[in-house]
Specification:
The structure holds 2 protein chains of 2 kinds.
Chain A: H1 2-21, H2 39-43, H3 50-68, H4 73-93, H5 109-132, H6 138-165
Chain B: H1 2-10, H2 12-31, H3 33-61, H4 63-83, H5 87-92, E1 96-106, E2 112-117, E3 130-132, E4 137-144, E5 149-156, E6 161-165, E7 171-175, E8 183-190, E9 200-203, E10 215-225, E11 230-237, E12 246-252, H6 255-261
Antiparallel strand pairs in B: 1-2, 1-12, 2-5, 3-4, 3-12, 4-5, 6-7, 6-9, 7-8, 8-11, 9-10, 10-11
The chains are: A mainly alpha, B alpha+beta.
């Protein structure tokens, strides 16, 4: 239990630190940065306490907003992921939804990819909707969601691959 | 009781999520002016729609009273028209556009009261337009959505309005002290001016919100502030803000030009 909590704390802060120090300055194609802290939403145990997870997601988004001077898009996007993740897990993994570390081992790779895609793109869609907050900017929202989503998906997939092998 | 607790426990995740979501929206609204303005516009629109339904019923049941008010207003206008010798000269000098509107929500219980009127940006309403009724002044437009506008009421402690005495044009600043909804306070009138009970107070015309000379109310009490040589004058409003339904929004067509010089 203690080890599991330590692992959680590690990914919680690793996500924030790497995001701020490394990924915030990528500026791929001039303006696209991958959102690395999403790794925490995927690594958290499938059967972990939901209340704790919602609070952690909220805290993670809030810390990111405070550090990056964002008005609150990270908080809202992370909070929504925190709430809908159990439904997404059930949708992607079906009967295997109760495997604790399903994102690392014991489940089929296509299910993991589907969950990663759903979490990454849902998070980015909410993030950009809140950031632009205008129906007139729908094209920018969709464009940024797709481009940032693809880059985040690649970074997250590589990281998850390393973690699984380890 | 047990069932209530069971329901709360059963939906604890949803309750926590909604609570944190509301907190996040407040956080977002407070940290970004852009989001604040967008969220406020949405709130005005939603609130306007909800209160519009109840206002519709209220208007229906008050039709007799509204008709009487309109007749009285018509009478006043006809009198004005009859008394003007050359009305065309007056019209040439007009620098104010007037738009009619109806109040759909009116609060008087707080110290910072607001109204919502059923006209918005699609009806050419803009921020900082003055709002009056046939009996007096109502407030200033503070925020505009597509179909509705929020108005800072004269019964709002943050609003100051330029006002003057009808008899000698001595002008000062009118504001509400947050207690009596029928009375406002006129400050900054020097004690060299003679003040009497029942003196008429009009809008001063020194701001771009209201034209000069709109009747506000009558002096109902005054005292001299010894330290600074000014009066503190109680003015009883001519209109009952809480009962106003039909209002007029006033646009000073030179407002931008005047503001650019301020």
């Amino acid at each position: 239990m203690l080890l599991e909590n330590l692992r959680l704390v590690k990914y919680f802060f690793l996500g924030i630190i790497l995001q701020i120090i490394f990924f915030e300055s990528w500026d791929f194609l001039g303006y696209i940065d991958p959102v690395f802290y999403i790794i925490f939403f995927l690594i958290y145990k499938f059967d972990g306490a939901k209340i704790k997870f919602i609070l952690l997601c909220f805290s993670l988004g809030l810390i990111m907003d405070l550090i990056t001077q964002n008005p609150g898009a990270n908080t809202i996007a992370s909070l929504i992921i925190g709430y809908i993740r159990p439904f997404l897990i059930n949708f992607c993994f079906g009967v295997n939804a109760d495997i604790s570390n399903g994102m690392i081992s014991g489940t089929r790779i296509e299910h993991r990819i589907l969950l990663t895609i759903l979490i990454v793109f849902t998070h980015h869609l909410v993030y950009f909707v809140v950031s632009y907050f205008s129906a007139d900017s729908i094209i920018f929202i969709v464009k940024n969601t797709i481009l940032t989503g693809i880059l985040t998906f690649i970074v997250i997939s590589i990281t998850l691959g390393f973690i699984s092998k380890k | 009781m047990q069932q209530i607790f069971n329901t709360i426990l059963k939906n604890k995740n949803l309750i926590l999520f909604i609570s944190l979501f509301v907190l996040s929206i407040f956080f977002l609204r407070n940290r970004s002016l852009y989001h604040k303005s967008k969220i406020d516009k949405s709130i005005i629109e939603i609130s306007g729609n909800i209160h519009g339904i109840s206002a519709m019923f209220n208007r229906y049941f008050n039709l007799k009273k509204i008709n009487e008010e309109l007749l009285a207003e018509n009478k006043k206008l006809i009198e004005l028209r009859v008394n003007k010798k050359n009305i065309q000269d007056v019209e040439l000098k007009t620098i104010y556009n007037v738009y009619d509107a109806e109040v759909v929500k009116n609060s008087i219980k707080s110290s910072r009261n607001y109204l919502i009127i059923n006209k918005g940006s699609k009806d050419s309403i803009q921020k900082e337009m003055g709002v009056i009724s046939s009996n007096g002044i109502i407030g200033v437009v503070s925020s505009v959505s597509k179909n509705y506008s929020s108005v800072v009421s004269i019964l709002n402690i943050d609003l100051n309005i330029n006002a003057k005495f009808k008899k000698n044009n001595a002008f000062g600043s009118l504001n509400w002290n947050g207690t009596n909804t029928n009375k406002v306070t006129l400050n900054n009138i020097p004690i060299i001016n003679k003040v009497e009970m029942g003196d008429s107070i009009l809008t001063g015309g020194m701001s771009t919100y209201f034209p000069e000379g709109i009747f506000i109310g009558l002096v109902s009490g005054y005292k001299i502030i010894q330290d600074n040589g000014y009066y503190e004058i109680d003015v009883t409003l001519n209109n009952i803000v809480a009962n106003e339904i039909n209002v007029f929004v006033i646009k000073n067509i030179h407002q931008k030009e005047i503001k650019s010089l301020e």
